């Protein structure tokens, strides 16, 4: 085996660990994600953009070491925070970190994948996913299912900080555009992108689940260009 292919195999194995930390390397990856300053900064920043209200019911998909879950629980202190992650190691780690809020039934963390979403008894106000969508099996399909869990007017924030070797501001901008396109294809509206200038930068795309009458209007706009002129003003901006 050449040294290049060995390097590639090691890189692929490490990347897989970030997509589903497990075993001893998974514990190490969990520790890195929990302690890397940029991970903490981006999680707090994304949550701050989501405009969480005290009574909000919020879901995080792919919470990893749980930095955003802790912040969401602090803000939605009369609501409820749900998290799903398909890594058993991350679920155990984050349950420990949030033990007090779980005991008082303000946080629920479930070991499942985004393509096997649990049932929620009431609609959610907001959904967040940070550096997670890139690992989902069929992101646009899953975004559309996630939209089905949100109340009309509910918000979503998807963030990406590309961690591939040599990632630059351009890599981030491309990642942001992909998030934007997927959200639009999944039926979200009012998508807008914000950037946090880290190295590399973080892109966060925020969007809204339209109210039913708006959904009808957007469908109409999609089929009839004339209706764009006759019926549609741009919808109010999110936030
Ligand atoms: C790179 S880590 C990011 C963790 C955390 N959001 C952060 O920013 O520190 C990606 C996380 O998403 C989870 N994940 C990946 N694919 C998933 C899926 N299909 N369903 C649920 N969780 C998933 C992984 O297990 C991992 O914990």
Automatic annotation (TrEMBL):
Keywords: Methyltransferase, Transferase. It comes from Streptomyces lonegramiae. The keyword Nucleotide-binding does not apply. InterPro entries: Methyltransf_25, SAM-dependent_MTases_sf. GO terms for biological process: methylation. It holds the Pfam family Methyltransf_25. Residues 58-154 form the Methyltransferase domain. It comes from the Bacteria. SUPFAM superfamilies: S-adenosyl-L-methionine-dependent methyltransferases (SSF53335). One of its GO terms (molecular function) is methyltransferase activity. PANTHER family: TRANS-ACONITATE 2-METHYLTRANSFERASE, TRANS-ACONITATE 2-METHYLTRANSFERASE-RELATED. This is Methyltransferase domain-containing protein.
